[in-house]
Design goal:
single chain, alpha+beta, phage-related protein like fold, six-stranded mixed β-sheet, 9 helices, 13 strands, globular
Length: 303
């Protein structure tokens, strides 16, 4: 479907019904195109999609069972399986593009540019919100769930990694600013005089600037596009996330919910002949914990 052509055909005869249809087409297209520019959300968060008016409920298992050593045949104390259910509300991200009515009618407005810009700006705003929610929560945690250091400090970071490896494995996830420093922790140096490592490791480092594994944990560098200024990364570059690979996605503490699709409304102003659209996306985020966080976060204060 050529959305730009459909919009141009409708704009050529901008009746109230056609202007409404233009807004709905833009809203539909933005909704279809909103795909994360980064894989950070899918790697870090537990995501739910719900319909309009619904509530997102997240259920966490708590430690309610107890085991007892006792004589054979004795009556044991009772314990129960305990769960905690948390409902997560939603908020809205909105954008209001405005164009001249005559430019709309004559097709001088590039609607494809408007759709692309709206998609990126709404997505970036939501990701910024998700990061702020997680950041405000983790700073109150203690090791092995959260720690800081000037650079990657082995004596601090290694015990955090070991903690999660005991659960069945771990992955180290972050921006290249921190994942590139992991190679230095191994003692690796790109010396031209001596060969300190196997050729395969040297080739891997020369090819990617990274090592693929550290202390048995896979190193994953996130996709981190720039914001509108073309200089500032979208995802905070200070954080290295230690993710337990054997834990179900539903146990991730950062919960993200999307309610319905993009809502589009429109209006034409008689005073200045401007055609305005409003696009809204309802979403929410929160940190939900059981007994302990199920993620480790290391903050590099030198970044």
């Amino acid at each position: 479907m050529n959305v730009a052509k459909l919009i141009a055909d409708l704009a050529a005869n901008p009746t109230p019904h056609n202007r409404y249809q233009i807004a709905q087409l833009v809203g539909f297209t933005v909704n279809e195109l909103i795909q994360p520019q980064t894989d950070w959300v899918s790697l870090i968060a537990d995501v739910k999609n719900i319909g309009f008016g619904e509530r997102a409920s997240f259920k966490l298992k708590e430690d309610g069972l107890r085991a007892f050593i006792q004589a054979k045949g004795a009556t044991t104390a009772r314990s129960k399986i305990a769960h905690k259910q948390v409902d997560l509300g939603t908020t809205a991200v909105s954008i209001r593009p405005m164009i001249n009515f005559l430019e709309l009618k004559t097709g001088r407005v590039q609607m494809s540019d408007l759709i692309a810009d709206a998609t990126v700006k709404m997505e970036n705003a939501m990701i910024g919100y998700f990061q702020a929610v997680l950041r405000s929560a983790v700073t109150s945690w203690t090791p092995p769930f959260y720690a800081t250091g000037a650079g990657l400090v082995k004596t601090t970071l290694n015990p955090m990694i070991r903690h999660w490896q005991r659960t069945g494995g771990a992955a180290l996830v972050g921006d290249i600013e921190v994942t590139a420093k992991i190679a230095e922790m191994t003692g690796f140096t790109a010396s031209t005089a001596t060969q300190q490592y196997a050729p395969s490791i040297i080739e891997e480092y020369n090819r990617s600037g990274l090592i693929g594994t550290y202390l048995g944990s896979k190193v994953v560098t996130i996709v981190n596009p720039f914001q509108e200024d073309g200089l500032t990364p979208l995802i905070d570059t200070r954080y290295l996330y230690i993710l337990p690979t054997a834990t179900d996605v539903s146990m991730r503490p950062l919960k993200v919910v999307f309610e319905g699709d993009v809502v589009a409304t429109e209006d034409t102003h008689i005073d200045d002949l401007t055609y305005e659209m409003r696009l809204d996306r309802f979403f929410g985020a929160g940190v939900v914990l059981g007994k302990n966080p199920t993620i480790g976060v290391y903050e590099d204060l030198s970044v």
